[in-house]
Design a protein that fits this description.
The chain is of the alpha/beta class and about 350 residues long. It has a single domain (about 1-345), classed as TIM Barrel, CATH 3.20.20.70. The chain has twelve helices and 13 strands. α10 (about 300-310) packs across α12 (about 330-340). The longest helix has 22 residues, at about 190-210. It is globular, with a radius of gyration of 19 Å. The two termini are about 25 Å apart. The mean pLDDT is about 95. Bound molecules: flavin mononucleotide. Flavin mononucleotide (FMN) binds near residues 62, 140, 269 and 319.
Length: about 350
C-alpha cells in the first residue's frame, strides 16, 4: 500500500484518462513477465459457487475499467476472482468529448461521463479469442448512442448473440447515466420487453452452444424503494440469474460543495457507498435466495466488502477503490472475507 501511495501521487499528476491508459498498458506488459502473476495473485483463493459458476474468490473487477479487454492478463494477475469487461456496444463509438473523467481525491471519488467509449463488440471478441486467461469472465453489454431508444433491444440482442459463446455471464447495463435515455430502460415495461427478448434468444443460444449463460441486470443506485420492489418482482418473474447493485449515481451525497460536483456524469467511490448498500439490502429482501446479488459501489476496504456480503451480496466488485487504494485492495478484501467467521455460511 505504501508503494502504491507513491505510484498514485505520480499517476494523479497526469490527466485521469492518461493515467488510466498508461496503467492498463504497463500492467498488461508486466503480466507477460514470468512469475509476475504468481507473485501477485498468491493467497487469493476463497472459492464460491454463484449462478452455477465456480469463482476462485468473490472479488471482481467492475465494468468500465477494461471496456475493450486490453488488459485481461494484467487484471487477472492482480488476483481478481472474476473480471467484467465492457460495456461494449454493437458498433465502435468514441464516447463523449474529453474531459469526461474527474477525480475528487479528498472524497476518494470519481465523476465520469465517458458515454460508452469502446471499440465495438467485434474487436472485443477478437481479443477474447486470443486470450490466455481462462477464469470467470463477465461481459457487460449496452446500446450505441445513435440507436433510437425504441430499437435499443436490437442492439442488446446483437451484442448478446455475439458475446454469448465467450462469456461466463452477461450483464445487461440499463443504468449508465451517460447515454441519453438509457436509464429509462429500467422502467417496468421497457425492462420487461428487453429482458424477455434476451431470455427468449438465450433459449436458442443455449441449445446451439450447449450451455445456459447466466443473465445479470445492472441497476442504478438512484431507483427509489418502490421502484426497486417493482423491479425485483419483475426480475423474479422473468427468472434472471443475477442483479448488480449498483452503477454510478447522479446524486452528489456529501460532495455537493466540491468544485467538480457540478460536472455532469455518474459519481462513484466512497460517497456512493451507503446508497449502493441500501439498494443491495432492499433488493435482497425481495429476491433472496432466488437471484444472486453482486455488490458494487464505494467498496474500498475489507470491512466494506464484508458489510456488502452480510447485506446479501454473493460477489463484490471494485472500480474506484482500485484507483485510490491500489491493487493490494483485491487481496485485502479476500483476506477479510476469509477471516470473518460470521460470513462462514455465506461465502
Ligand atoms: C470511469 C468509469 C467508467 C465506467 N464505465 C462503466 C461501464 O462501461 N459499464 C458499467 O456497467 N459500469 C461502468 N462504470 C461503473 C462501475 O462499474 C461501478 O458500478 C461504479 O463505479 C461503482 O463502483 P465503485 O464505487 O467501486 O467505482 C464505470 C465507472 C467509472 C468510474
Amino acid at each position: 500500500m505504501m508503494l502504491y501511495k507513491l505510484l498514485r501521487s505520480l499517476l494523479f499528476r497526469l490527466p485521469p484518462e492518461t493515467a488510466h491508459a498508461l496503467t492498463l498498458s504497463v500492467l498488461e506488459h508486466l503480466a507477460s513477465v514470468p512469475l509476475f502473476d504468481t507473485l501477485m495473485s498468491a493467497h487469493s483463493r476463497l472459492p464460491v459457487k454463484v449462478m452455477g459458476l465456480q469463482f476462485p474468490n468473490p472479488v471482481g473487477l467492475a465494468a468500465g475499467l477494461d471496456k475493450d479487454g486490453t488488459c485481461i492478463e494484467g487484471m487477472a494477475a492482480l488476483g481478481f476472482g472474476f473480471l467484467e469487461l465492457g460495456t461494449v456496444t454493437p458498433r465502435p463509438q468514441p464516447g463523449n468529448p474529453a474531459p469526461r473523467l474527474f477525480r475528487l481525491p479528498e472524497h476518494h471519488a470519481l465523476i465520469n461521463r465517458m458515454g460508452f467509449n469502446n471499440l465495438g463488440v467485434d474487436q472485443l471478441i477478437g481479443r477474447l479469442e486470443r486470450r490466455r486467461y481462462n477464469g470467470i469472465l463477465g461481459i457487460n453489454i449496452g446500446k450505441n448512442k445513435d440507436t433510437p431508444l425504441e430499437r435499443a433491444h436490437e442492439d442488446y440482442e446483437e451484442a448478446f448473440r455475439k458475446v454469448y459463446p465467450h462469456a461466463s455471464y452477461v450483464v445487461v447495463n440499463v443504468s449508465s447515466p451517460n447515454t441519453q435515455g438509457l436509464r429509462s430502460l429500467q422502467s417496468i415495461d421497457a425492462l420487461k420487453k428487453l429482458l424477455s427478448t434476451l431470455l427468449d434468444v438465450r433459449v436458442n443460444l443455449a441449445r446451439e452452444y450447449g450451455s445456459t449463460v447466466p443473465l445479470v441486470v445492472k441497476l442504478a443506485p438512484d431507483l427509489h424503494d418502490a421502484d426497486l420492489e417493482d423491479t425485483a418482482r419483475l426480475l423474479l418473474e422473468l427468472e434472471v440469474d443475477g442483479i448488480t447493485a449498483t452503477n454510478t449515481t447522479l446524486s452528489r451525497p456529501g460532495v455537493e460543495h466540491h468544485p467538480l460536483a457540478q460536472e455532469q456524469g455518474g459519481l462513484s467511490g466512497r460517497p456512493l457507498r451507503d446508497q449502493s448498500l441500501h439498494v443491495l439490502k432492499t433488493l435482497h429482501a425481495y429476491v433472496a435466495p432466488r437471484i444472486a446479488l453482486i455488490g458494487v459501489g464505494g467498496i474500498e476496504s475489507g470491512a466494506d466488502a464484508c458489510a456488502r456480503v452480510r447485506a446479501g451480496a454473493s460477489l463484490v466488485q471494485i472500480y474506484s477503490g482500485l484507483i485510490y487504494q491500489g491493487p493490494g485492495l483485491v487481496k485485502e478484501i479476500v483476506r477479510h472475507l476469509a477471516a470473518d467467521s460470521t460470513l462462514a455460511t455465506l461465502v
